[in-house]
C-alpha cells in the first residue's frame, strides 16, 4: 500500500492543493438595478468619445465603460465613488467583478 502516489489523498500536503480563490468582501454593498434603457456610456457621450464594453455599478446603478475603453469610466467610478462591484451589461454575460478584491463576485 502507499507506493509512489500514496501521499495524494486526504493527507496531501497543503502546498500541493490548488490555491483558494479570493472572495469578495463587499457583497453586502450589492443593490438591485434595472438594465439601462440606453446602451451607452453617458460620460463618453458627454466628452465625445467611444467605448468598447459597458459595466454597471452595483452600488448605485451608474453605467460606465470597461477597462479596454479609452476612458475606463467604470474603473474611474470605483476610484472616485468607492463602489467596487460592477456587472457586465453585454448581451449573454452575467458576471460581476469586485475592483477592490480583484475577484469575481
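^ C-alpha cells above, recovered residues below v
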Amino acid at each position: 500500500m502507499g507506493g509512489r502516489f500514496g501521499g495524494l489523498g486526504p493527507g496531501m500536503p497543503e502546498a500541493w492543493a490548488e490555491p483558494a480563490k479570493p472572495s469578495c468582501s463587499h457583497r453586502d454593498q450589492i443593490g438591485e438595478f434595472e438594465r439601462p434603457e440606453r446602451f451607452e456610456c453617458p460620460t463618453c457621450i458627454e466628452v465625445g468619445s467611444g467605448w468598447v464594453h459597458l459595466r454597471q455599478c452595483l452600488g448605485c446603478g451608474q453605467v460606465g465603460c470597461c477597462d479596454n475603453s479609452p476612458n475606463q469610466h467604470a474603473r474611474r467610478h470605483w476610484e472616485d465613488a468607492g463602489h467596487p462591484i460592477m456587472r457586465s451589461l453585454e448581451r449573454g454575460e452575467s458576471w460581476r467583478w469586485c475592483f477592490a478584491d480583484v475577484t469575481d463576485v
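The chain has one domain: 24-104.
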